[in-house]
């Protein structure tokens, strides 16, 4: 039995400007013991999916099972199997840290939980904050308490929605050390994050969500294998020629281009030279999950534009697809719907 099963989950938010289809028949399973990543740009529907999983929002269609329990019809059992760390910082300002954790234990009917609470406090670097009032804590510390709160009832499935957004490096490390340990001991983890290097390091499988649809789902190693294997990176203040601009990932002065072999590198540099573009700090690196993510999301956006009859900015898709073929970038929902 999967730890979590999303079956044709759809969510429509009605609005005066027309219905918003936040989720469109999302289907995938997470097996027990997985460290599963759910990635996607802002507004993709990640939090909506997690809210439905946690029973905080109801799906318009489809169903979600946690350890075989339907989150609607068998809410208590499903909720008990889940530890959810929400994206928003919500807390009770009148409690201190230990009280908040005891209160949360009480919510699950657990009376004498201090041994586990102490372990949680230690594991999350909160021991010396146990009697601090929630109000006095920094954002990062509150985030740790939210994680501890999600875990008071030792749930077999741990769900973290952007737990490291705006959080310092030390907390990220503490958190990942702790969550990885729980995962090694058998907990299933579902993580959404903007930090793709985190997902790459931690998750054995990854689903990418865009506009409410699963557009890729595979083992992390497979997703990485699909990407252009090398990336040429340089810095410039000049405007790139069109052919390069169409496939480049530009962050400030830094330009990155897929370049699988020496010929591709030569082509790019020749094009740069012809355009009279001045470049600095040239280097070649291996493609990472962010490259894959950009390819998949761009591919699904241009497929969407084609479907809606919107003409794409820049050049047609076949030329922009960095993998050299667009069949692969539009593949995903096929794989996504099979178990
Ligand atoms: N309560 C709501 N009412 C109306 N629209 C919402 C609500 N919550 C989310 N949305 C919309 O649904 C889409 C998905 O949002 P969300 O699930 O928060 O995405 P993500 O977590 O991937 O950034 C967005 O377009 C968002 O504006
Ligand atoms: Mg979100």
UniProtKB/TrEMBL annotation:
Any GO MF annotation of the entry: ATP binding
InterPro entries in the cross-refs: AAA+_ATPase, ABC_transporter-like_ATP-bd, ABC_transporter-like_CS, ABC_transporter_ATP-binding, P-loop_NTPase
Positions of region (Disordered): 302-339
Bias-annotated ranges (Polar residues): 327-339
Chain ranges of the ABC transporter domain: 4-236
Pfam entry (one): ABC_tran
Gene3D superfamilies on file: P-loop containing nucleotide triphosphate hydrolases (3.40.50.300)
This protein's UniProt keywords: ATP-binding, Cell membrane, Membrane, Nucleotide-binding, Transport
PROSITE patterns linked: ABC_TRANSPORTER_1, ABC_TRANSPORTER_2
Protein name: ABC transporter ATP-binding protein
Record lineage: Bacteria, Pseudomonadati, Pseudomonadota, Betaproteobacteria, Burkholderiales
